[in-house]
Amino acid sequence: MSHSDDSGRVKVVATNRRARRNYSVVETYEAGMVLVGSEVKSLRAGKMELKDSYAQVDHGEVFLVGAHISPYDFAHEGGHDPERERKLLLHRREIDRIAGALAEKGLTLVPLQVYFKEGKAKVELGLAKGKTTYDKRHTLREREHAREMERATRRYRS
Fold this sequence. Notes:
- This protein is of the alpha+beta class.
- The chain has one domain (10-130): Small Protein B, Chain: A (Beta Barrel), CATH 2.40.280.
- The chain has helices at residues 17-22, 37-44, 92-105, 133-157; strands at residues 10-15, 23-33, 48-49, 54-58, 61-65, 68-69, 86-89, 108-117, 120-130.
- The strands form 2 sheets. The chain has a 7-stranded antiparallel sheet with strand order 1-8-9-2-7-5-4. The chain has a two-stranded antiparallel ribbon with strand order 3-6.
- A hairpin with a 2-residue loop joins strand 4 and strand 5 (61-65).
- The radius of gyration is 19 Å and the shape is globular.
- It starts with 9 loop residues before the first strand and ends with a helix.
């Protein structure tokens, strides 16, 4: 059963803006999410918050922790727990690689965004290293410098 309106399109539901500011992302992975029906309905309505969430490997499985999916208003018997841990689906070799990296390099697994791809809910995970205050200032300085260069170029052209 394929829907012509969903095929191939990606509909972003939630983006973790803080993730790229507070972490430098080393590697990204796409994972499927195990959800209940009322969660899917809430996601389609865009009611998800990734602010303080992260993913962790536990007994060879990956879970999304701290992600908030608002309860669906029309759900039977109250629907789902908004803060529950959600299992993520990845290939075994990806899970093993992530677990190894988390163990030895002091990296964190952060969700970067949640989206629908071909009708299925997916989460983009980033294997990330925490930025220090110095790194954050450096990034801001680079951004400001690029803006000034752009302004100067625009002034020069006109």
